[in-house]
Amino acid sequence: MLFERPCAIVDLETTGGHISRDRVTEVGVILIDGERVERFDMLVNPGQPIPPFIEQITGISDAMVADAPPFADIAARLLDKLRGRLLIAHNVRFDYGFLKNEFKRVKLPFRSEVLCTVKLSRLLYPQHFKHSLDSIIARHGIVQAERHRALADADALYQFLQQAIAEHGQQQVEAQAALLMAAPAAPPGIDPEVVEQLPDVPGVYSFYGDDGQALYVGRSDNLRRRVLAHFGAEPRPHKDVRIGEPIKRIEWQETVGDFGAQLQELQLIRALQPLHNLRGRLSQELCSLQLTPLDSGFLTPRIVLASEVDFSRLDTLYGLFRSQKEAKKALADLCAGNGLCQTCLALEKRGARKGACSAFALGRCKGACIGREDADSHNQRLQQALSRLKLQSWPYPGAVAVRETDPVSGQWQEHLFERWCYLGSRREEAAAPQGTPTFDADTYKLLAAFLRKPQPDAELRVL
């Protein structure tokens, strides 16, 4: 006996890892009713090609499922077997999510209490670092006929649970399972079904209050985990935002990868102006520094506004600042940290007697203000100090696309840019989205960071 209630240990093989786009290729189930144990498995025609990568792992090919029934043909029978049981799986969100979607496509409601054996293993065996199925099989000496086939993997979980009960006792294992099965602490007023629908994929989410006002926009490589973290169902990230207002609605958008999630997050923050987001808002006073020669031969930084100069077309700018005040502070810090002259940099007005600047008396200026340092020397040190702030010039002749590709399903999404300006995104080859490109600091920083260090499963295409 595993538990006091009827259980179903389930394992699925699929065409990939995306619970919305991919499909089930094999179902393996072990039904447990006290001492009575029933096993069954079946191949399923997914209605779409099985990627070579998946075939290599599972051994299930297109030819093997060609004559297998589609999920619609087995749905009623499978639902009848699973109804009223505790569903147990390794990384249960994966298997449960796939099953819910498959049943939903044939208009059959499916809901079950679930238990994740990954999390159960972590609670029962905290001394071990790895809790993948391969690790559990090796650690517990579980004998398996074959790996990555549905019924064989379900049987490995059955053996693991039997050993865990033998080592820790029925009461201890059930107590730890009860902790894991506690319902997510969704906020009052949110339909629990919405929480159940949260996918384990990259994307962007938004919270709304009583009056429809957007409260917060965030992103994650795992939407479900990140959203639930706000409500205490998962560990909260360090310095996470605190939302005091009641949350009445949750919306989300899936993306192929993290780059698209970051980009979409910026777009939503600007469109919705959520109360608790500061980063990502368009600055009305976006500015930079541009060196201007004086009659004396000294170069001095001049603050230029994005509304006056096309930042996307200049390669003589230093730094991006949200206000002139922020730009002046950055310049003052640069001056103090590099022994530059306050008056030469126009941070301090030169007196009528043209004496030394205030920094010279403190030993922070080499005397350019009183002729002890010539213009060439001061200009060289100024340019060197500013070099780390220099904006990168657009390195391409025209537009480019960052293409993110799901490594399993092959689904892709492209994000188009020209001269650091975001043009739009597309999921199929078509004309580039038309709009009015606008230069902004956050998009520039996002794309520049990608060009320095591309992300996995993403590539740059010059159009």
Automatic annotation (TrEMBL):
SMART domains: EXOIII, GIYc. It is an enzyme of class 2 (transferase). Residues 200-278 form the GIY-YIG domain. It catalyses: DNA(n) + a 2'-deoxyribonucleoside 5'-triphosphate = DNA(n+1) + diphosphate. InterPro entries: DnaQ, GIY-YIG_endonuc, GIY-YIG_endonuc_sf, GIY-YIG_UvrC_Cho, Ribonucl_H, RNaseH-like_sf, RNaseH_sf. Its EC number is 2.7.7.7. It comes from the Bacteria. NCBIfam families: dnaq. PANTHER family: DNA POLYMERASE III SUBUNIT EPSILON, EXODEOXYRIBONUCLEASE 10. This is DNA-directed DNA polymerase. It comes from Vogesella fluminis. The lineage of its organism: Bacteria, Pseudomonadati, Pseudomonadota, Betaproteobacteria, Neisseriales.
